[in-house]
Amino acid sequence: MTLRTLADLTLGQRAAGRTALAARWIVGHDGRGHRLVENGEVVIEGGDILHVGPRFEGEVARRIDLGAALISPGFIDLDALSDIDTTLLTVDYGPGWATGRVWPEDYLQGGPREMYAPEDLAFQKRFAFAHLLRNGITTALPIASLFYRAWGETVEEFEAAAEAATDLGLRVYLGPAYRSGGMVCTAPGVLEPRFDEARGLAGLQAALDFAGRIAGAGQGLVQPMLAPDRVETCTLALLQRTMAAARDLGLPVRLHMAQGRMERETVHRLHGMTAPRWLADHGLLHDRLIAPHAVEATPEDLRLYADHGVVVAHCPLVYARDGEMLRSFRRCREMGIRIGMGTDTAPPDMVLNMAVALMMGRAAEGSGTGLTTAEVFDAATLGGADALGRPDLGRLAPGAKADIAVFDLMDPWFAPTVDPIQSLVFGATGRVTKAVFVDGRLSMREGVVAGFDEGAARVRAQAQFERLLARYPDRIWGHPQLERVFPPTYPKMR
Ligand SMILES: [Zn+2]
Q: What NCBIfam families does the annotation carry (predicted)?
């Protein structure tokens, strides 16, 4: 056995025999919680962790010393950005109805158009998955906007997503988003609901067929989930059948609710109460339900989440940009609410999201003791695993999956380390991710993902985004010029 470096491993593959990874810092797990190991080793065998602790005394095929690095469980992203990020088009610009985030009625009447070609949709997911890996995320539940779609997501694009996850080596929970309808703009600032029950139920059926086919694909990397779109786009019948199927098949369900002002107003108008109350009254809250983002949740909504074991997917970055926050992370935990985390926007950076979670969580409590780094790190790892019912994820312990992120604490931009978790979170960037293993396979090394040309992909992503923008006026009330919809930060110089 000789001492090796990461460069000796084949990118995109699982090495034969045992691999010992040594580092100055390791986040291990002792069965009760994360524990820091100083100058220890993690040993991978196949797709699993064999050992975490001091130097392993048994036989290994290779030993890699990562030096002043942090070996950490990979992050679990419950609301993982999986398209070319269009939430950026909602920040700093007008209300949704004036900026193409609500369809004008004439657009719906004319038949909403699919704004992406099938190859665009397949590319988006591959692009996003590579970015998640580059940020130390090893398990992802993709999310994308339906505003740009003819209706819901398609089974074909999710088959392409399963293929991308298998090719790149990312653990995923996949389910095409479906819905019964949504709001349309009938006059400036006036929004009206429009539903098509049959179309929603057909979407659920397609998602269930897909779930049955896809479970365990990619040597177990691909698992199914159910993804009804935001609560205000779903009828009661659609949600009742979704939750019944989730229970029968043991699937996680993700449903956005208590997350936006338009949603809150719409649900009130349709059902006379908040979304969590509406679901609770129909027996539809349960412990496999993942509910991003809870920033609009009332105290009663939060109580219902706690009582029914609902998991909040906390995505602080995308909300902080709009000056909004969960109130508060600590209070939710004290109520007994389960919290996992998500990225939901670009950059799909969980380290940055942990930093924002910490800052906003403390701001919400008005105190530096209002949230700890450990609570946030737990949410990004153990909280996600708990949400998925996966005690073999989100931790480094014997028998757990070898889903690992390695962070470079000697990055020249980083301050000297007193505590590795504090350094990482205060450093606030996933760009220090040196390597990622998923299921024992080296999926990313020094920013490179096997079979993925980052430079070419970036050019293609820009072109796709510009094509999308060019078609924007067509689907905005009054069809204004693009520059009026998205005015520049400064006036352009003449
Ligand atoms: Zn979201």
A: PRK06151.1
| pLDDT average, residue stretch 71-98 | 90
What pLDDT score does 166 carry?
98
Q: Can you tell me whether residue 279 is helix, strand or coil?
A: helix
Beta bridge partners of 51: 43
Gap from CA of 41 to ligand 1 centroid (Å):
36
Over residues 418-444, the pLDDT tens digits come to 999 999 999 999 999 999 999 999 999
Residue 148 has pLDDT above 90, yes or no: no
What is the sign of the dihedral through the CA atoms of 214, 217, 218 and 224? positive
Report the separation in Å between the CA atom of 412 and the middle of ligand 1, taken as the mean of its atom positions: 33
454 and 447 Cβ atoms separated by less than 8 Å:
yes
Cα 243 to ligand 1 centre (Å)? 19
**Phi/psi at 47 (5° precision):** -95, 5
Domains and CATH numbers, the chain: 75-380 (3.20.20.140)
Distance 93 CA to ligand 1 centre (A): 19
Residue 290's alpha-carbon distances to 57, 214, 277, 383, 394, in angstroms, are 42, 20, 16, 11, 17
Q: Which has the higher per-residue pLDDT, 96 or 304?
A: 304
Name the token pair of 39.
């100058």
- Tell how far the Cα of 258 is from the centroid of ligand 1, in angstroms: 11
Q: Is the per-residue pLDDT at 189 higher than 90?
A: no
